[in-house]
Amino acid sequence: MAAQNVKPVDVVGVGINATDTLIRLPRFPTLDSKVEFISSTVMPGGQVASAMVACQKWGLQTRYVGRVGDDFAGELQRKEFEKAGIETHLKVIQGAASQTSFILVDEPSGERTVLWNRSAEMTIRPEDIRREWVVSARALLVDGHDTAAAATAARWAREAKIPVTADLDNLYSGIEVLLEHVNFLVCSKEFPARLTGEKDLLKALPAMQKRFRNRIAAATLGKDGVLAWDGERFHYCAAFLVETMDTTGAGDIFHGAFVYAQLARWNLKEQLAFSCAAAALNCKALGARGGIAPLADVREMMRSGKTYPPSFTSNDFKA
What gap in Å lies between CA 281 and CA 24, rounded to an integer? Predict the structure, then answer.
């Protein structure tokens, strides 16, 4: 695709896609036991891929860059991206297996356990990305799995003054280089301690933000909501209360919603509330993308005020 033919989009995502087999269980199995499962369903997922689907559904124009194998899972991903209307740049690796996951969903709670496999051939490389795909977008979303490619895209975005959001859940080789180019770091609750060695989140988030000079350093906390540090003060949003079927993909949809809210130019409080509401509603259905709700439903959830008991209070943020 020649540079002059690259159309502008709202957001570009560089990161993983995965094909999930969701196995619903009446209870989580113990060691050396047998459990009859309720259902087994194959559905598309993956951090950045699912976030792009959410953004597209909410009216943004999206672009996705990633890899798949020449197998059933890869074909499923291609069809789902096409169905969603997403501009895709998928490198198909002949003879390779796409990333797959087996996800055990505990029916009583909706909580999930993920068993996943990703071959080295699915690693997105810097040469898989073109600069014009990145700089013709208004925002970039990356995850931390393929740090060399993500860091390359993030550097291009920062040079073009395009905001970069990162969805990080683990320490991967080269993650520090990526973090130097990230504006909005929205990570898992375990990530700050893994990176800084500081177990107290109220200390770890400021330490990360100061070290890498991110505009925002935040951690998603499941039923405890989200906590963000902007360099001067903390911002907290409790998780919205829903009848949970499956928590798979809640973080992915949170990140898609966060990018959407950024581009809408809402303040940080609204960004966090919108993201929490969208993530909660996704938990009402099966699969990483099964419950992506219309914008009107997300806004109604925000207005409802129905949340889990707050994990943090104003006293927690006092020096």
Answer: 19
Q: Where are the beta strands (DSSP E) in 59-215?
A: 62-69, 87-93, 100-106, 112-117, 137-143, 164-168, 184-188
Q: Which tokens sit at 208?
A: 């990360």
What stretch of H or E contains 227?
Answer: strand 226-229
pTM value > 0.85: yes
Coil/strand/helix, residue 57: helix
The phi-psi region of residue 59 (left if phi > 0; otherwise alpha if psi is between -120 and 50; otherwise beta) is: left
At 202-244, the pLDDT tens digits run 999 999 999 999 999 999 999 999 999 999 999 999 999 999 9
Q: What is the DSSP letter of 6?
A: P
- What are the φ/ψ torsions at residue 196 (nearest 5 degrees)? -100, -20
| Residue length of the chain | 319
State the pLDDT confidence band at 5, using cuts at 50, 70 and 90. confident
Asked whether 27 and 106 are in contact (CB, 8 A), the reply is yes
252, 46 in Cβ contact below 8 A?
yes
Pairing of strands 164-168, 18-25: unpaired
Question: Which CATH number does the domain 8-29+37-310 belong to among 3.40.1190.20, 3.30.160.670, 3.20.20.70, 3.40.50.2000?
Answer: 3.40.1190.20
DSSP code of residue 307: B
What lies within 8 Å, CB to CB, of 282 at 6+ separation is: 249, 250, 253, 288, 289, 290, 291, 292, 293
Token reading at 122: 């699915």
- Read off the DSSP letter of residue 150: H
